[in-house]
Amino acid sequence: MHRPAPSAHPRHRTVEAPAGRLHLVEQGTGPLVLLVHGFPESWYSWRHQLPALAAAGYRAVAFDVRGYGRSSRPAATDAYRMLDLVEDNLALVRALGEESAVIVGHDWGSGIAAASALLHPEVFRAVGLLSVPYAPPGGPRPTDVLARMGGDEEFYVSYFQEPGRAEAEMEPDLRGWLAGFYAAMSADTMPAHGEPDPHFVARTGGRLRDRFPRGGLPAWLTQDDLDVYAGEFERTGMTGALNRYRTMDRDWEDLAPYGGAPIEQPSLFIGGALDASTTWMADAIDAFPTTLPGLVSSHILDGCGHWIQQERPEEVNHLLTAWLASLRS
Questions:
Q1: What share of the chain is helix, strand, coil (3-state, %, to 5)?
Q2: N or C terminus of the chain: which is more exposed, having fewer CB within 10 Å?
Q3: pLDDT, tens only, 68-111
Q4: Nearest to 44 by CA among 310, 317, 323, 260
């Protein structure tokens, strides 16, 4: 298969995939490292990692997950199930002319990366997980668990389940909503201990943005960065991104044959000490000796929130490149 000449600068293009098309940005040459973003982001969340990985001798590829950015946005909610996203990743590796890749994901991208490694260890030879630790498939139905989390309030993932409901809050002022959501989960702007938790909403007439911080942007997010994110979602709307949450029960059914299964490949975890994903899923981190027997290293960054590779790009780049180097030894 013909491969385009490597470039020292990021290169945008689209490739065919089960989603229809996937938009990707690549930089560098060497072993393939696939970077999978989370919600509500895009390939742009890896802007600090692309040049660092390229400089370290890797072919770094960040892409828009289906439903985001310039990738295709299927209309059916069911088209966003995990098995379909894994097939997109397989197609992307093939379209890039490669037989294998290291896959690294953040937030929902962590779950997508983990599922890709679990289902296709012959292709995804190592997996890096940022912010959200690996928890094997199985257990109770996800929406049943989430419905009990809020008590008198509603957990944000449950709030996202009904098509159109969250969109009605977000889309009239996407730029403002995104700024507030990013600030709510960033170390330097998140609500102080004891203030209302922005992960929950009042069950009657509540909105997530009612609890967003009222100050400025977090230090990692410039106005230009916000323009990039807002511009993409203003063009696409939020439904494609939110549909990932709306297929959780279908994923639970699809992945039932893998209940309790560990990921055997070499792995890496990096979390933020102030990130709710790290604290709520502390038991999953404690279980890594069983669930990630190939774990090379695990790191919790003090004073860091959820947007880890953007909040702490230099530290994350150092940890990623050191881990990748260990895979070559």
A1: 45, 15, 40
A2: C
A3: 999 999 999 999 999 999 999 999 999 999 999 999 999 999 99
A4: 310
Q: CA-CA distance, 247 to 304, in Å (whole number)?
A: 29
Mean pLDDT of 167-195: 96
Other Cβ atoms within 10 Å of 215 Cβ, number: 9
Other CB atoms within 10 Å distance of the CB of residue 199 = 19
261 φ/ψ angles, rounded to the nearest 5 degrees: -75, 135
* CB contact set of 181 (below 8 Å; sequence gap of 6+): 40, 198, 208, 209, 212
Distance (Å, rounded) from C-alpha 265 to C-alpha 184? 34
Instruction: Say if CB 186 and CB 311 are below 8 A apart.
Output: yes
Half-sphere CA count of 125, side-chain side, radius 13 A: 13
261 DSSP assignment: P
| Spatial distance between the Cα atoms of 52 and 47, rounded to a whole number of angstroms | 9
90, amino acid identity: L
Q: Which residue do the tokens 């990707």 mark?
A: 24
Q: For residues 131 and 268, is the Cβ–Cβ distance under 8 A?
A: no
Task: Return d(Cα 39, Cα 93) in angstroms, integer.
Answer: 22
What is the model's pTM? 0.96
Q: How far is CA 182 from CA 65, 185, 253, in A?
A: 19, 6, 31
Helices (H) and strands (E) in the chain, counts: 15, 10
Closest of 12, 5, 23 to residue 97, by C-alpha: 5
Active site residues: 107, 306
